[in-house]
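Title: Prediction job returns without error message
Component: structure pipeline
Severity: low
Priority: P3
Assignee: unassigned

Description:
Job completed but the reporter wants confirmation the result is attached to the right record. Sequence as submitted:
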Amino acid sequence: MMPEIRIVFSTFPEVLAMKRPEFASNRIAAAVFVSWWALLAGCLPQSTATTGVLTPPMAGVRPHVVDVQGRKRTDPYYWLRDDTRSDAAVLGYLNAENAYLDAALAHTRPLQAQLLAEMSARIDPEDTGVPWREGNHWYLERYRSGQEYPVITRRPMVPHAPETVILDANERAAAGGFYALGTWEVSPDGQRLAFTEDRAGREMHDLVVRDLHTGAEFPERLSGIAAEVAWASDNRTIYYLALDDALRSYQVRRHVLGTPVESDVLVYEEKDITFDMSLHRSRDGNFIVIQLVSTLSTEMRLIDAATAAGVSHVFLSRQPDHEYAVDLDGTDAFVLSNRNAPNFRILRTTLADAADPARWQEFLPERRDVLLLDMQVFRDFVAVNEVHAGTVKLRILGRDGRSDFYAAGRDAAYAALLDNNPEVDTDTVRYRYTSLATPPEVHALRPRFGEDQLLKQEFAGTGFTPDMLRTEQIFIPARDGTGVPVTLLYAAGTQPDGAHALFLHGYGAYGSVFDPEFTREILSLVDRGFVYAIAHVRGGGDMGRAWYEAGRVFQKKNTFTDFVDVARGLVRLGWAAPERVVGFGRSAGGLLIGVVANEKPNPFTVLVTEVPFVDVITTMADETIPLTSYEWDEWGDPRQADQYDYMLSYSPYDQVRAQDYPHLFVTAGLWDARVQYWEPAKWVARLRATKRGNSKLYFSTDMGAGHAGLAGRYLRLKETAMEYAFILDTLGMAK
């Protein structure tokens, strides 16, 4: 039975002024904030306003026909889409949902505060990274006590040289509101700093250029661009990416410092809307690299960094189903390619022979059971990340073919990931080692001498040691007999006795590998008796390319059934009590959770989903929405009848039913450019109007952030603390 809580009314201007971070940090004690605009929009039944009893907001119904190639669906909550993020009725509804959530969880505030304190205590207040060399300087990223954002410093490579702050993101964020530092790049001569920053969470960045001797900023400003920038060798020319109306990077432009932005030169324009692009300077410093990417195809274009007015030329023309990446060392090129090799192989060529793959030489062949994930080329060797059944290993191969070995791993499942290595001409490779039980470590490996030096292990709380935890990997059969890898984390001494709560995390999209990395926050649940598990479901790349293909387009349902079968298998094996199973997914993983929520019978008591992609048909049919055209090869193109039917059969928004549902906690970001806020908003509205029973349904919209939430290292923990408090309270484990 829900508690009775009085409602406090306010005027619409105050609604617009309510940014989510401020509202979250100044809770209205035992009261619900509801705008009268929400009432006018039909978001609440009239009885709520008159009785003062806490009942959830109910969005008004305004039928709208969505027509996709003659196939029509009626969407009663389409009106919740507002591209301007300024519609009074829409904002009123979102704020009413936020207020309902705050009131409903008011009794958990002490627990939220306790969880937040625990998570914050696992962060080193004076966290300092490991210095790296670029040019004639050592660079370092550090944090100061109590501050949210990094400080970037450098010092010359001479004895006793002083350290200088070149960028303090805390000062940049001091104006208030959302802030995220994009990328930063120092000019080749070390004299100037270019950095990008996002002040809305929309992933539209502004470029700032600073003179590092005087501290003065150049007067020109570039706004609404992608995060990546790259310097030409003249130290005056900057390449950047312009965004189209769908926030797709579609143009490379060139800006010369001291000239009007309006005169910037168009270097390259991508007209195929199924391709996105990124930009960086090659590790050997010779080229500006444009990487054009669709779901199943890539193309790389090179610009001579030494020529300020350089034009781009193709390394190898795009071909269907050919993905590749290149690392350069002078005239040598190493190519990571899936051409005739679904799990990728590495080939060696020269820039002169790049356009003729028949002249390429194989350096590392493909293997059926190993996915090649990444590579970096060094003077004497090539470092490769390989995925072995969910574990990411680091392999070192001599360029002369005489040496071949793996960096040591000491956990049942782990990730030894290539780190920041800006130099090619070095005998040292840095990598980051981590597992579910091991906080990230930075290592410096010198293959020639057999030396592996630990440079840093990240702080995980006073008194924490990895031997307090246990991790292992098991395989659980899916309903079709396929073994699904599962990585487990639990406290030392835990036994599979059927008494534990389970937090099961899934993703399964884009062929992404779900690295078994350490997560500080999850310790607050593990310390309370939870078993944490990653389900490496099909659709990811954890078991190679075939694993991805088995969870894409017409095989997508394998992703969802794998997750359900893993949950049931963990209960069967005693790793979870059947009444204490929690499922979690984010973004594309939120689609997974949305589908699972509709399935009956359902093995989950609680489901938590952040920024979930749940309105599959409407979104994938709308090319004006960011990422849509880029992802037709991933989910399907609803303009094709057979693909429309398949997607419709699982789309969470379209498959909401009049049935009992698990307890649900759903989040959104008002400025999200990847999963628009209205997808989860519409889904929650339809669930409220349709579902049966008394299960909880809470919806939180961050009114001042986007897809990734708040960027500050402490600020981002507030939402997690609320979610965990909801989980513990719902499972009766709050004490």
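Comment from assignee: result matches the submitted record. The chain is about 20% helix and 30% strand.
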